[in-house]
UniProtKB/TrEMBL annotation:
Keywords: Glycosidase, Hydrolase, Signal. GO terms for molecular function: hydrolase activity, acting on glycosyl bonds. Residues 447-606 form the BT-1020-like structural beta-sandwich domain. Residues 1-41 form the signal peptide. This is Six-hairpin glycosidase. Residues 43-277 form the BT-1020-like N-terminal beta-propeller domain. InterPro entries: Beta-prop_BT_1020, BT_1020-like_b-sandwich_1, Sialidase_sf.
C-alpha cells in the first residue's frame, strides 16, 4: 500500500465508530483493521534481531564488532587552549564527515560553554589517514546580530548579541568535483528560545580548495524572516566563480540534500519535500534504487523518486530502540548495510546493526562503550558517545573500505571510529601475534582500540621494533586495546610486556566473556607490584621493574573457576576468579579502572566543572610486544 502524505490516518476517529451494527458497523471495523494491518506490514526498515542493550553498562553488554578503532580527534581544554588547537571553548558537538582529495574532512560546531548559548562557530579538522588530525580551524566564525533586531514571536531586542550555529549538513561534493562546506546561523534571543524555529538568519557556504585553503563565505539560503540587507556575507550568486555557483545550484536542486535542512529552514520552504517535525535526516539507496530515510527516534520512510515524495509519514522503525540522538544508515563497501546509533533511551552505548537487504537488521554490536568524565559542565550537555554521522553517499569513499563515523563524547570532545568490513563479532582462530613480525598495516587489524589524544593506544616503533603501545597522561581517561578471541571454556593467554615505569600509572588486563563481564583481572600497579584481583582484594604476584620485559602466561579454567599465572616461566600460584563467566571471548589491556558513572539515574544536567579539568598526569607507558591465545572451544563439551 502506498500512502500519500496527505492521506488521513486510517485509525483517526476509529474509536468513535460503532461496531455494534452487524453489517455496516462490522464492515467499517474490518476496513479500519485492514488499513491498520497494511500500515503495519509497510515495507520499512526494521530490527529483527534478539539482542538488546543494557543501559546499566556503558557498553550495553554488547559484543564488540571486531577491529573497531575509536580515535579522539579533538579534546576540549579551557585552562590550556594550547593543548586544544588554540581554542578554549568546551561545548563541541554535531560533527560531520567527508572524504575528498585523499583527505578526511571533519567539521563540528562549538560554543564557549553550553548548547545554544552564544556565540557559536564551526571548525574544521583534516586527516590523511583518520588517525592523525590537524588542529581545528575556524571556517564559520561568530556572527554579530545587528543591534535592534527582533525575532518574530520573541519580546527581546538584540543588543551585543551573537548568533549560534546549528546544522544537520556539513559537506557536499558536486559533480564538478567542488567540495562545499555548509553551516547555519540561528538566533537565540533568550531562555528557551529555539535556533531551529525557522526564524534564524540563514545557511552559509564556502568552498574547500584542493590545496587546503578556503573560498569566501556566502549565504546560500536566508530565512524568510531575516532582512537580507543586514547580512554580513553576500549571496552565493554574486560569486564570479561559475564552478562554485554551479555546485551551489546543483545542491539546491537535490531533494535529499534539502531534506537535511528541514529543521533550520522556513517551515514552508518549497525546496524541502517532507515538511514534518523530523530531525537529523540520514538516507541510503536500496538495490532497487528506492531511498530509505532515517531520522532521530529511528523514524523511517521510503522514497521511490529520489526524495521528491515519500511513501508514508515517518514511523518508528519496528524493533529499533533509539531516542533523540541521531541514527546513521549507509550501504557498506561489502554490499551490505549498516545503521550506527545509541540503542537506548540514553546516549550510550554506540552500536552498529547490519542488514543484507537494507530493510531487515539482524544484529547489534558494540562500537564504543566508553564514557569519559565530563570535565566541563554546560547547558544540555548529555553524557556519552552521541550524534553519530558517517560519510554521505557522494561525499567520498575511504580507500580502506571501512565504515567511518564521527560523533561527540559528552558534547565536549570529538571522535571518529573506523569499523572494518565485514562487520562481525566472531573470530574463528586464536591469535599468535608478534607485532614486529606482522605485515605493515596489518598489526592492529583485529584489535579494538580506544585511543584518546592524551592516552594513546597505537602501534609504535620502540628500540627499532614494532609494538602495541599504551600511553596515558590523561587525568580523566585511559587507553584501551582489546582482542576478541574464539569463545573458550579453557583458555591460555601469553603476552610479553615492558612497563616503562614502576612508580606511576596502572595497566589492568582483564579476561572477559562476550558481554564484557570480567572473571579475572591482572594489574601492573603504581606501587611496583604485579597483582591479581581476588574477590574484594588485590593479591600480590611479584615486584616489577621499569624497562624490564615480562613474559606472562595465564591459564584459565571456567569449570574450576581457577587461574594459574606464570611470569618468565616461573609459576606464581593458583587463584580463584573474582566473578563467574560461562566462557571467554575478550582480553582487554586498559590504563585505568572500570567506569560506572554516569548511570541511568544520574541527574540529566551537569552544572559543575571537574577540579583541575585542564591538567595532565605524568605519562605512563606500557609496551606490548606479543600476544597469543589457545584454548578449548566452549562448543566442545
Amino acid at each position: 500500500m502506498k500512502l500519500n502524505l496527505n492521506t488521513p490516518n486510517p485509525l483517526k476517529g476509529a474509536k468513535n465508530r460503532s461496531c455494534k451494527a452487524p453489517f455496516r458497523g462490522l464492515g467499517v471495523c474490518l476496513i479500519v483493521l485492514l488499513n491498520f494491518t497494511q500500515l503495519q506490514a509497510q515495507d520499512t526498515v526494521r530490527y529483527v534481531g534478539q539482542t538488546l542493550s543494557n543501559v546499566d553498562y556503558h557498553h550495553g553488554q554488547l559484543s564488540p564488532a571486531v577491529g573497531v578503532h575509536n580515535i579522539q580527534v579533538f579534546r576540549a581544554n579551557r585552562e590550556h587552549p594550547e593543548l586544544a588547537g588554540g581554542t578554549n571553548w568546551t561545548y563541541n558537538h554535531a560533527p560531520m564527515l567527508a572524504y575528498w582529495n585523499n583527505t578526511f574532512y571533519l567539521q563540528y560546531l562549538s560554543n564557549p560553554v553550553g548548547e545554544h548559548v552564544a556565540p557559536g562557530q564551526t571548525l574544521l579538522l583534516t586527516s590523511k589517514d583518520g588517525y592523525s588530525w590537524s588542529k581545528p580551524t575556524v571556517i564559520f566564525p561568530p556572527y554579530k546580530v545587528p543591534d535592534g533586531w527582533k525575532k518574530p514571536g520573541r519580546p527581546e531586542v538584540a543588543k551585543d548579541l551573537y548568533a549560534v550555529m546549528h546544522q544537520r549538513m556539513g559537506f557536499y561534493v558536486a559533480k564538478n568535483k567542488r567540495l562545499l562546506t555548509l553551516a547555519f546561523y540561528g538566533l537565540v534571543m533568550g531562555p528557551k528560545d529555539d535556533p531551529n524555529d525557522g526564524n534564524g538568519i540563514g545557511r552559509v557556504v564556502r568552498e574547500i580548495y584542493p590545496d587546503g585553503k578556503y573560498g569566501p563565505i556566502y549565504f546560500i539560503r536566508h530565512n524568510a524572516s531575516w532582512d537580507q540587507s543586514k547580512s554580513v556575507y553576500p549571496f552565493y550568486t554574486s560569486s564570479n566563480d561559475k564552478g562554485f555557483v554551479e555546485a551551489c545550484d546543483e545542491l539546491l536542486a537535490n531533494p535529499l540534500m534539502m531534506q537535511q535542512w528541514v529543521e533550520e529552514a522556513d517551515r514552508n520552504d518549497p525546496l524541502i519535500t517532507l515538511k514534518k517535525d523530523v530531525k537529523a535526516f540520514s538516507y541510503y539507496y536500496l538495490p532497487d534504487n528506492r531511498v530509505v530515510g532515517l531520522w532521530k527516534h529511528a523514524l523511517t520512510t521510503i522514497s521511490s523518486d529520489g526524495g521528491k515524495t515519500w511513501q508514508y509519514n515517518p514511523l518508528r522503525a519496528p524493533g529499533f530502540v533509539n531516542s533523540n540522538a541521531k541514527i546513521w544508515g549507509q550501504k557498506t563497501s561489502d554490499g551490505n548495510y549498516a545503521t550506527v546509533y545509541n540503542p537506548s533511551e540514553f546516549r550510550w552505548p554506540l552500536a552498529v546493526s547490519t542488514s543484507k537487504d537494507g530493510l531487515n537488521y539482524t544484529n547489534l554490536l558494540l562500537v564504543n562503550g566508553e564514557i569519559t568524565a565530563m570535565r566541563y559542565g554546560g547547558a544540555y550537555k548529555s553524557y556519552g558517545p552521541q550524534y553519530v554521522r558517517g560519510i554521505e553517499e557522494g561525499n567520498g569513499t575511504p580507500p580502506d573500505g571501512s565504515l567511518w563515523v564521527t560523533y561527540s563524547m559528552n558534547k565536549e570532545d570529538i571522535w571518529v571510529s573506523s569499523i572494518p568490513m565485514p562487520i562481525t563479532d566472531e573470530v574463528k582462530t586464536h591469535p599468535d601475534e608478534t607485532f614486529a613480525q606482522l605485515p605493515a598495516g596489518e598489526e592492529l587489524k583485529c584489535w579494538n582500540i580506544y585511543s584518546p589524544l592524551q592516552a594513546r593506544a597505537q602501534l609504535e616503533t620502540i628500540g627499532g621494533s614494532k609494538a602495541l603501545v599504551l600511553r596515558d597522561k590523561d587525568k580523566f581517561d585511559f587507553a584501551k586495546a582489546e582482542r576478541i578471541i574464539p569463545e573458550s571454556k579453557k583458555l591460555t593467554v601469553e603476552f610479553s610486556i615492558v612497563p616503562q615505569q614502576a612508580n606511576k600509572g596502572v595497566l589492568q588486563i582483564e579476561f572477559q566473556d562476550a558481554k564484557g563481564t570480567p572473571a579475572v583481572r591482572l594489574l601492573f600497579d603504581s606501587d611496583s607490584l604485579f597483582k591479581a584481583k581476588v574477590g574484594y582484594r588485590d593479591s600480590g604476584i611479584q615486584k616489577y621493574e621499569a624497562g624490564k620485559q615480562y613474559d606472562v602466561r595465564i591459564e584459565l579454567d571456567r569449570e574450576k573457576r581457577m587461574f594459574t599465572t606464570f611470569v618468565n616461566g616461573q609459576p606464581k600460584g593458583n587463584r580463584l576468579f573474582f566473578a563467574p563467566v560461562a566462557s571467554f571471548r575478550r582480553v582487554v589491556f586498559r590504563t585505568g579502572g572500570v567506569r560506572r558513572f554516569p548511570d541511568a539515574d544520574t541527574p540529566t544536567d551537569q552544572n559543575y566543572d571537574l577540579p583541575k579539568a585542564g591538567e595532565q598526569d605524568d605519562e605512563a607507558v606500557f609496551v606490548i610486544k606479543s600476544f597469543k591465545t589457545s584454548g578449548l572451544s566452549s562448543r566442545v563439551e
